[in-house]
């Protein structure tokens, strides 16, 4: 165990020497070209996916607009039906009032 004030010195040296298995410039260039081709393929795939997503979004927007139009048309029909029911209720109320007057008379 080291006590207070103890010092330890560690030194290491390494020597790197080129070997026959070293990579040539052509191999590096080919690896870079392969990596660039893969990156291009990935970018093209991402572009295709983005285009497909945009088309799906357009279709969803069109479907939502169609649904909104259908709701607006139904709303108009419901308003018309309610107006007709109000008119019928008014006519029926007036008829009941006439009958009541005749019965009392």
Structural notes for this entry:
This protein is rod-shaped. It has 105 residues and is mostly helical. It is built from 1 helix and no strands. The termini are far apart.
Nearest-angstrom radius of gyration?
43 Å
Largest sheet: none
Helix and strand sequence: H
Number-wise, the strands total: 0
Derived structural class? mainly alpha
Number of helices: 1
In round numbers, the mean pLDDT is: 87
- Between the first and last Cα atoms, what is the distance in angstroms? 124 Å
Helix content: over 70%
Percentage of β-strand residues: under 5%
Globally, the shape reads: rod-shaped
The oligomerization state is single chain
Uncertain residue segments: none
Secondary structure elements and pairings:
Blueprint lengths: L24 H80 L1
Question: Quick summary of this structure?
Answer:
With about 100 residues, the chain is mainly alpha-helical. About 0% of the residues are buried.
What would the keywords be for this entry?
105 residues, mainly alpha, 1 helix
């Amino acid at each position: 165990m080291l006590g207070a004030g103890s010092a330890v010195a560690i030194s290491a040296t390494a020597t790197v020497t080129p070997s026959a298995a070293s990579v040539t410039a052509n191999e590096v260039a080919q690896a870079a070209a392969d990596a660039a081709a893969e990156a291009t393929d990935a970018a093209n795939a991402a572009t295709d996916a983005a285009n497909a997503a945009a088309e799906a979004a357009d279709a969803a927007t069109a479907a939502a607009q169609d649904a909104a139009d259908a709701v607006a048309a139904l709303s108009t029909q419901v308003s018309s039906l309610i107006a007709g029911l109000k008119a019928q209720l008014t006519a029926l109320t007036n008829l009941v009032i006439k009958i009541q007057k005749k019965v009392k008379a």
